[in-house]
UniProtKB/TrEMBL annotation:
Name of the protein in question: OpgC domain-containing protein
Keywords: Membrane, Transmembrane, Transmembrane helix
Native species: Variovorax defluvii
Lineage top rank: taxon: Bacteria
Keyword Membrane found: yes
Length: 401
């Protein structure tokens, strides 16, 4: 998933508050981008590398990490410069994500549409069925973040979270997180029982909304907000210099390891692959990605416990993977660049995972990852220019938070 932040801020809120960069988080977010690219590109590697750690995808890890970073960075801005500065920083970031979404939509509606129609590509026609039926209306609704074509439904959810976060964070800093998390859990529970569909029905009835429900994005934002605000809470709790590290009892860590191993075995050696219960749709909803089903949260929690308990020791023992760090630190541009690559492949090859021989898939992946790394390095170069040059070019110093 695209980030609301390009990493723990090297410079926050106009460059006035130096912030430590956590290379471990950058590397993890880079790993999430790699897994997303494997999942979204239609190749022979798509199914084996989809949800590789159990019934949890890269999207969950990315949302949680991005929310953690946002909580850490923006709480520190609020602490040092005030709530108004924190709100402005959130809004600037939301605007940046919105502009990235608009640019990607423009690429989809122009170049990808033209190529797909010229070569009569079914994958593009299916992706753009609503747009092709009424381009002006679809384009307007897409800019309003109502119409969200597949693959381009992630950034609108982040924008929604970023716009909500300053109010939620300001409330939590004054009154504590208990009420926030209870309300968030309540909305998650409502989402499991059709709350989004009910709201859509009201909008269709009273506002005459013409966008079909299935064209409004696969992610249920009312469910996924629980994951976002949980990450925001964890990040906010880490901003104090004397914050105690997370302490996990040994028995909890042992249980988490056992459950994580079982989840990985079930995912890769079970007879149903990524569908944990085969054709039983009701049971599969317990692991549903788009609704963020309850067992999916359990799987994510046990993986999180394992990562927190054993991750720091592992990171001290392995070489720093600076190419992953580079991709994670430039996560928004890299995410958009990965969408460009995926859309081009869909336009020229379609969505078949066997359209090329195995060596063709390997070559395609090598080219795509080289492209993503080049985008990451170019972004780093741009962000690391002297502040005076950045101010002269943009009129302001953009926060990497």
């Amino acid at each position: 998933m695209p980030p609301p932040a390009d990493g723990p801020a090297a410079v926050a809120a106009g460059g006035r508050v130096p912030m430590k960069r956590y290379w471990e988080i950058d590397a993890l977010r880079g790993l999430m981008l790699v897994l997303m690219t494997f999942t979204h590109l239609p190749t022979r590697f798509t199914d084996p590398l989809g949800q590789p750690f159990g019934f949890v995808s890269a999207a969950e890890g990315f949302v949680l990490l991005s929310a953690f970073v946002a909580g850490l960075v923006y709480t520190r801005i609020s602490d040092r410069q005030g709530v108004d500065a924190m709100r402005r920083a959130f809004w600037r970031r939301a605007l940046k994500v919105y502009l990235a979404q608009a640019a990607t939509l423009l690429f989809l509606f122009t170049i990808i549409t033209r190529v797909g129609l010229r070569i009569d590509q079914p994958a593009v026609k299916n992706l753009l069925s609503f747009y092709l039926a009424d381009p002006p209306e679809a384009f307007a609704y897409s800019l309003l973040l109502v119409y969200e074509p597949a693959l381009l439904d992630i950034l609108p959810m982040y924008i929604f979270f970023m716009l909500m976060s300053p109010w939620v964070l300001a409330f939590a800093l004054r009154h504590g997180w208990a009420g926030v998390m209870l309300a968030s859990a309540a909305f998650w529970a409502l989402a499991q029982f059709g709350f989004s569909e009910w709201l859509y029905g009201l909008a269709a009835q009273y506002l005459h909304l013409s966008v079909p429900f299935h064209e409004m994005g696969a992610f249920n934002a009312f469910a996924w907000q629980f994951l976002w605000f949980a990450g925001l809470w964890m990040g906010a709790s880490r901003h104090a210099p004397d914050a105690e590290p997370f302490r996990i009892p040994r028995w909890v860590a042992a249980l988490a390891v056992a459950l994580a191993i079982y989840g990985i075995w079930w995912r890769h050696h079970g007879i149903n692959g990524q569908a944990p219960f085969g054709g039983d749709e009701e049971l599969n909803m317990l692991f549903d990605k788009w609704q963020l089903g309850p067992l999916r949260i359990v799987n994510l929690v046990v993986l999180g416990i394992v990562a927190v308990r054993f991750g720091p020791g592992l990171m001290r023992r392995i070489p720093r993977l600076r190419w992953l760090e580079a991709m994670g630190s430039a996560s928004l541009p890299v995410f958009c660049a990965h969408l460009v690559a995926v859309l081009l492949v869909l336009a020229f090859y379609g969505d078949s995972q066997t359209a090329r021989p195995w060596w063709g898939d390997a070559l395609l992946l090598a080219v795509v990852f080289a492209w993503l790394y080049a985008v990451a390095r170019a972004t780093q170069w741009w962000d690391n220019r002297p502040p005076k040059a950045r101010y002269r070019d943009t009129g302001t110093i953009d926060s990497s938070a």
